[in-house]
Specification:
single chain; 218 residues; alpha/beta; 2 domains; six-stranded mixed sheet
């Protein structure tokens, strides 16, 4: 049943509606149906997942492009074998240059498809380097005794990779600096010189960094 307003707007029975009145007294007035349907709110719209999917695809594409740029197969195809002679040494620590050459050899064998040869004349490329400087010094002191409890090694290298057939320099770092920290015991009975193990860690870090830099360079 439809109700109409008699004197202004009013509430109908069973929901929002209009009071009683005649049809002629309110010409053109449209009846409002009473009941719960009149109070129903619009249904919320479901978010469109398409923009999110496009963003995910864009991120995946960018990530794939980054990895391709570092592949070792982008190095000149003529390079199959590499020789790594013992590094030169201009510092007081003579053992370091030998460690670096050995660690570079192991790193190339484990991470790249290139063959490492002992004779430079039989190699397609030559990786040469030299220890330019070596230094160490305390970095942390015990506030009570004033003795050093931490130290740091700083090494600078020069590294060059050359194509033996063309003489072209494929990779070069005129000054490549590396740092390694180690602890110093303040107890004389428990003292152990950790500088030796710090040099071993530094040499391995040098090998990883140099090989990575050469691969990414191509």
């Amino acid at each position: 049943m439809t109700r109409y307003a008699r004197r202004g707007w009013g509430l109908g029975v069973g929901g929002w509606g209009l009071g009683r009145s005649s049809r002629s007294s309110l010409p053109g007035l449209r009846a409002i149906p009473a009941g719960p349907a009149a109070l129903t709110s619009p249904q919320p719209q479901t978010p469109n997942p398409q923009p999110l999917l496009l963003l995910i695809l864009a991120l995946l594409t960018a990530a794939c492009g980054y990895h391709v740029a570092g592949h070792s197969d982008l190095m000149p195809k003529t390079i199959k074998t590499i020789a790594i002679p013992a590094f030169g040494n201009q510092s007081v620590h003579q053992k370091l240059s030998q460690l670096i050459s050995e660690d570079l050899t192991r790193e190339f064998i484990s991470r790249t498809p290139y063959t490492i040869v002992a004779q430079p004349e039989k190699a397609d490329a030559l990786l040469q380097g030299s220890v330019i400087s070596y230094g160490s010094g305390p970095t942390i002191f015990d506030p009570v005794s004033g003795r050093a409890t931490g130290a740091q090694i700083i090494v600078a290298l020069q590294v060059t990779l050359t194509d033996r057939n063309t003489g072209k320099v494929l990779f070069s770092r005129p000054r490549y600096e590396f740092r390694e920290r180690y602890e110093i015991s303040i107890d004389p009975q428990a003292y152990f010189d950790e500088s030796g193990t710090a040099i071993i860690r530094l040499s391995r870090d040098v090998a990883r960094s140099v090989v990575t830099a050469i691969l990414v360079n191509f």
